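Deviation from plan, reported transparently: protoporphyrin IX containing FE complex.
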Amino acid sequence: MQSDIGTGGYGRVAKAFHWLIVALLAAQYAVGSIMPHIGRNTLNQGWVAWHLWIGATILAVIVLRFLWRLRNPVPVDVTLAPWERMVSLATHWTLYILVFAMTLLGWAAANSRGWTVKLLGLVPLPQIAPQGSEWGHEAGDIHNVLVYVLLGFIVLHVAGALYHYFVKGDRVLQRMLP
Ligand code: HEM
Ligand code: HEM
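Because the crystal trials were delayed, the predicted structure below was used instead.
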């Protein structure tokens, strides 16, 4: 493991997963912001249908990514101070959890509006909330709040990466670059 010290980094698959999720989240935030506000008479078409399509893809990719991560652990950069390791680990875990939670809550919200979520537009996922259910509706409300919480952690995470590159001048950012 000596050779990992300081410069060790993520493998090709982990990097591909990381940047794929970044791209999907960027698209999802864009679509979520331009789609019409969802009300009683909103139909699952146009941007709304895109939102469910991208959302189901994010769910599949984040699950695969996390399973890959469990089987391929990457040591924290050992040149980091203990507090930096703690903040970075906590942020990474929070990001995984929030992305996963967002997809489940969005899925429940969609079901409560009577919409079936399909993976790649083909494979229907089971109903996790009955149509018209109170909790499915609340899941939608929480989803709409977590939109900003996740954004906050993304800003923190990106600020951390830039801090390493520009302020500390270490190789943490490079660990995730192609
Ligand atoms: C991490 C992934 C996701 C992000 C970043 C995201 C983002 C957003 C945004 C920005 C909005 C608009 C909030 C507003 O109008 O105030 C929204 C609403 C919504 N999203 Fe997502 N979304 C994600 C995943 C999903 C998934 C997987 C589904 C369903 C399969 C979904 C279904 C919905 C629904 C139904 C609404 C309307 C909620 C309601 O008012 O009842 N989202 N999302
Ligand atoms: C331009 C934007 C981004 C940059 C520059 C960036 C940079 C990085 C870097 C350098 C690492 C490796 C840190 C280390 O060496 O320990 C990393 C890891 C990670 N990033 Fe990002 N990131 C970005 C966006 C995002 C977004 C939007 C998410 C949202 C989910 C995210 C989630 C993660 C996670 C979960 C890890 C930990 C990976 C693991 O150890 O399993 N990143 N990122």
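The helical segments are 12-34, 47-71, 82-112, 134-168. We consider this an acceptable substitute for the interim report.
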